[in-house]
Amino acid sequence: MNPEHQWFVIVNPTAGVNRAAKQWPQISKMLTDAGLEHQHAFTQRGGHAALLARNAIREGYRKIITVGGDGTNNEVINGIMKQKVVPTNEIIYSIIAMGTGNDWTKTHKIPRNTKKAIECIKAGKTTYQDIGIATYDNNGQNGQRYFVNVAGMSYDAFVTKTSNERRNFVTNQLFYIFLVFACLYKFKPRKAKVLFDGQEIEGDFYTVNIGLCKYSGGGMQFVPHAEPNDGLFALTVAKDVTKTEVILNTHRFYNGKIGDHPKIHTHQAESIRVEASNDKPTLLELDGEYVGNTPAEFTLLKSALKIVVLG
Length: 311
Known about the structure:
Helices cover 30% and strands 35% of the residues. It is of the alpha+beta class. A hairpin with a 2-residue loop joins strand 8 (190-196) and strand 9 (199-211).
């Protein structure tokens, strides 16, 4: 069969504490039973998912499914965005969520249940999403990476960096939440400047979030005003927030009311730049993956990705 009419499935076998590898035979059968002809490949190392996506498109595939979590999702998106064979919005993309947080799927209401996710893919309803490009410092070198969900800086990136270093221990969402609060007592805010659309905010930031979608950190809403296809970044800045205030306002992280706190402000912007105000850079994570630090700049590609959504 012509690859253009098949799905190419990129499976991270370690996702969900190896659940993806164990369930792949059943998932493959469910895809076949649903009439979704497919080929697949397992990722073997970090960065491999992006390479598999690029190679699949080069071979003629125009429909891609990820079986994995937010990290694999980000890698595959980067593979799609970096290939030069076809315009990115001609690729149809979907995901069968198998990770710990599965935050990107929450905005689009993509079912967590595998059977329902496959029914969603079969139904074939699609929409377009904006994609962010982050340029940043990576150990003195210029880094660039695409992101599809949320870029987090300062405390968010500090937690993510710690989580990535302890990836084998962060096996469920409850442990991640424990890590969030454990890191709170080790974290020291760093002074930075946030520049966007002619405005400038300077201070000691607890967090800076740049979002295309609403959820991160396992269901937290630091950018509840984000819309994935409105051509704008959602920006949230929290300045001079104390550790006690963070703990007492935890409920706001989940209920979409974070902007009601007097020290937390929400904005929208087409482009954003974050600079360190001293010799201590502010850390950066993208879609739950620690990548580097300031100076960091964020630009947006409108309607750059075609995705399957709940019908």
